[in-house]
Backbone:
């Protein structure tokens, strides 16, 4: 839990947070004025930022993306749903960081091996799915706004851009040319993790199984606010996500 | 950067350039090529200068000169391309523009760099694929338009080889920023010659500004900086091979997002075959199975008593 708020106690991490927020705003605002696929949504290349920012800067990257999204919303799309945008973009960056370092290794994130490449893709998919569930189902449950296609749009925007645009940027930023030092979990956290390994694995399984179940249910045309089964699955998933994120 | 990594980076550049047509389509025809070049590269230089302002101190006379040379080559390429496109059909122009795949290995031969067997096979496959995807007709004669287009292509090949050399000696980031700045400067001079009122002639709307910004960001700032970085690790031929998949990426984008490129894309048998050949050629050129066989043979011969 302490780790999440660590950027607010370090000048360097605050700077990283600011840079991430600025990059996010710079990439998000121009797309606000153009709808590329009529009737659907704007395409958001900015969704490539959270995974890269999360893997490189950890909590600072996550806060940067969340704040950046909120600030970008102020340029014309600010509403009560911006709260979900804030949370969704935080998760989109924070979850990859937590998942990447789940096993507790001290290797800095990179995609130099096939194993790590698969890991990057898996992490992107899990984060994209979590963000899509959080925002689309959140809109439904909290604000009664169910837009059947919003789930798929968020999922593909996040997954597509984090692979097509985020991956190349991540490669360059983790190459020998780059001077960026990736943020790693602190050693004390690694020790704590070893103590609660069972709980952590349990949360991870619940999180991923919940995501898969909700994906299937959404595909079947179910709506969280109207289906008790989906609502229950969503509640279990949300608890698992919360537990996994703050542990 | 590993070979797979540099190929991913190169593919993302191709994707950026292919999808840039989505935004170019939204820019009115009244905005000339030079105006477009000035505005996109100008904004790209500003973005890069702002993001990497601390790095700018690293500029020296040599890096500036190299950046200027790269900018001049790219501008000459653009002018010739513009001349060519205005005089020949789009399909022919598209095919001739893809002839980098021939020019780059030929120019490399001047530097005694022979292509590997896989690369030769890949190039032949890609060329055949390009004939199918561009829909070029064999009848007709060589005219000034084709010559201009071929010269543009030659300059592009020179650019790729020059970048390859420079990125090994200078900071790729500074080269990219410098090239962008000088391209904007040359573009502005050409625009001024064409239309002395330059910026005052453009009817600015939110949509035009957003499109120009996006093109500046992705097709210029992102694509060229990534190109500089990846060329430090990838050979000029790999760059050309990856860039030659652009017609396939464009086709896929047009099929996925109907109306993206201003007209409905119809996937004919010839186009599908051409796309398959290009992809097969790119895969073939990116692997080593033919060289591996030859190497194994030579090793076996060397080890034989």
Residues:
């Amino acid at each position: 839990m302490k780790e999440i708020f660590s950027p607010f106690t370090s000048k360097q991490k605050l700077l990283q947070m600011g840079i991430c927020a600025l990059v996010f705003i710079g990439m998000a605002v121009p797309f606000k004025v153009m709808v590329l696929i009529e009737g659907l949504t704007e395409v958001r290349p900015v969704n490539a930022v959270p995974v890269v920012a999360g893997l490189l800067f950890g909590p600072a990257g996550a806060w940067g993306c969340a704040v950046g999204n909120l600030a970008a919303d102020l340029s014309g799309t600010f509403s009560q749903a911006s709260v979900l945008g804030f949370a969704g973009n935080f998760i989109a960056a924070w979850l990859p960081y937590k998942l990447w370092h789940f096993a507790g290794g001290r290797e800095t994130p990179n995609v130099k091996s096939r194993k790590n490449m698969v890991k990057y893709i898996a992490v992107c998919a899990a984060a994209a799915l979590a963000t899509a569930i959080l925002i689309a189902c959140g809109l439904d449950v909290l604000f009664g706004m169910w837009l059947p296609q919003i789930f798929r749009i968020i999922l593909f925007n996040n997954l597509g851009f984090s692979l097509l645009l985020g991956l190349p940027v991540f490669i360059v930023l983790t190459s020998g040319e780059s001077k960026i030092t990736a943020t790693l979990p602190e050693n004390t956290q690694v020790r704590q993790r070893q103590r609660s390994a069972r709980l952590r694995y349990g949360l991870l399984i619940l999180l991923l199984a919940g995501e898969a179940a909700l994906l299937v249910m959404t595909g079947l045309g179910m709506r969280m606010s109207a289906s008790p089964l989906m609502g229950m699955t969503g509640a279990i998933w949300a608890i698992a996500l919360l537990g996994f994120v703050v542990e | 950067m590993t070979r797979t990594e540099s190929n991913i980076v190169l593919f993302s550049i191709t994707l950026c350039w292919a999808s840039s047509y989505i935004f170019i389509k939204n820019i009115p025809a009244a905005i000339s090529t030079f105006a477009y070049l000035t505005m996109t590269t100008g904004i790209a230089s500003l973005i890069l200068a702002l993001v990497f302002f601390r790095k700018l101190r690293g500029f020296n006379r040599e890096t500036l000169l190299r950046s200027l040379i790269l900018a001049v080559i790219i501008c000459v390429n653009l002018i010739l391309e513009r001349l060519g496109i205005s005089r020949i059909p789009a399909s022919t122009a598209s095919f001739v523009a893809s002839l980098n795949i021939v020019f780059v290995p030929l120019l490399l031969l001047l530097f005694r760099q022979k292509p590997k067997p896989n690369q030769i096979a890949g190039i032949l496959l890609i060329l055949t694929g390009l004939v199918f995807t561009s829909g070029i007709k064999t009848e007709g004669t060589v005219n000034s338009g084709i010559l201009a287009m071929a010269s543009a292509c030659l300059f592009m090949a020179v650019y790729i080889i020059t970048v390859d050399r420079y990125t090994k000696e200078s900071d790729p980031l500074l080269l990219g920023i410098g090239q962008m700045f000088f391209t904007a400067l040359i573009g502005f001079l050409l625009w001024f010659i064409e239309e002395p009122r330059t910026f005052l002639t453009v009817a600015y709307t939110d949509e035009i500004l957003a499109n120009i910004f996006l093109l500046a960001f992705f097709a210029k700032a992102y694509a060229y900086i990534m190109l500089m970085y990846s060329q430090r690790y990838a050979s000029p031929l790999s760059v050309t091979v990856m860039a030659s998949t652009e017609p396939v990426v464009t086709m896929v984008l047009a099929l996925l997002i109907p109306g993206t490129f201003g007209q409905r894309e119809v996937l004919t048998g010839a186009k599908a075959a051409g796309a398959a050949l290009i992809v097969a050629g790119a895969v073939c050129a990116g692997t080593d199975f033919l060289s591996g066989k030859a190497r194994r043979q030579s090793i076996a011969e060397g080890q034989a008593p």
Chain A touches chain B at residues 23, 26-27, 30-31, 33-34, 36-37, 45, 111-112, 117, 164-165, 167-168, 171-172, 175-177 (CB under 8 Å). The CA atoms of residues 51 and 76 of chain A lie 25 Å apart. The two ends of chain A are 6 Å apart (CA to CA). Residues 114-143 of chain A form the longest helix (30 residues).
